[in-house]
Amino acid sequence: MTYLALVPAAGSGSRMGALSGRALPKQYLPLAGQPMIWHALATLCATPAIDHVFVVLAPDDAHWPAAAMATLGPKLHVLRCGGDTRAHSVANGLRAMAGELGERMDIGNDWVLVHDAARPCLTVAMVENLIAEVGEDDAGGLLAVPVADTLKRADENGRVRQTVPRDGLWQAQTPQMFRHRLLLDALDFAPQVTDEASAIETLRLAPRLVAADASNLKVTYPLDLQLAEWILQNRGKPCR
Ligand code: CTP
Ligand code: MG
Predict the structure, then answer these.
(1) Which ligand is nearest to the CA of 195?
(2) Which residues contact 235 (CB under 8 A, 6 or more apart)?
(3) 80 lines ligand 1 (CB under 6 A)
C-alpha cells in the first residue's frame, strides 16, 4: 500500500492576522525555532510509511522558506496550485501530485493523508495510529477528539437557546485519509465542504473516527500559537 501526504498551505491566516497585526501568513510565523509549517512537514517526512509529502502553496506565495525546508529531504514536493478555499487547494493538489510523480502509475488507489499546515503538533505516533486504525476501510478515516465540554446553541441575542447533548459528538482534526480517486471525486461533487471527511460523507460513506488528543490543535488565534509552542517544548515530559 502506498501512503502520500498532502498539506494545504495556501491560506492567509486572516483570523490570526486580524488579532496579531502581522501580515505574514500564519503558517510561516515563528514557532519553536522554525516556521510553523516546518513542524507538520517534518513529522510527515519522518513517518516511514509515507513515501511523498506534497505541500500546496498559493501561486503567488513569496514567503516559502526554501532554505529551512531543504533540511526535510527528498520526500517533500512543493506544488504552487492553491485555490481560493481549502477544498479547492486540496483538489488542485490531488490533481497536481499525479503529474509531479511523473505519472509513474495510477495513484487512484493510493492513500492520501491530508493535514493542515496549521496543526504543528502532530506526531509520528498519531500518524501511524491513524494508518493502523483505518487499515483498508473503504470509507477512510480521520483523527478526532470526543467533545468534552457541555455545548450550548445561542440565540440571536447571545443567550442560550438550547443545551446540545454532547453524546456522540467529536471534533474533527487532521490528518484525514482517503483513497486518492475517491477523495478527488468527492471534492468535485461537494466543493463547498470545510474538511475532506464532509466531502466523503456526501457520497453516503461513513469515515472512521480515530481517537486522538487535544495536543493536535489547529493554530487559528495568537493564543493557539503560544499553546503550540508550549506543547512542542514540553513534549515527552511527565504530566503532573
Ligand atoms: N488553506 C488552503 N487554501 C485556502 C485556505 C486555507 O490551503 N484557500 C489551508 C491553510 O493554509 C491551513 C488549512 O487550510 O493550512 C486550514 O485552514 P485555516 O486554519 O482556516 O487557515 P487560513 O484559511 O489560512 O486561516 P483563516 O481562516 O483565519 O483565514
Ligand atoms: Mg480558513
Answers:
(1) 1
(2) 121, 123, 215
(3) no
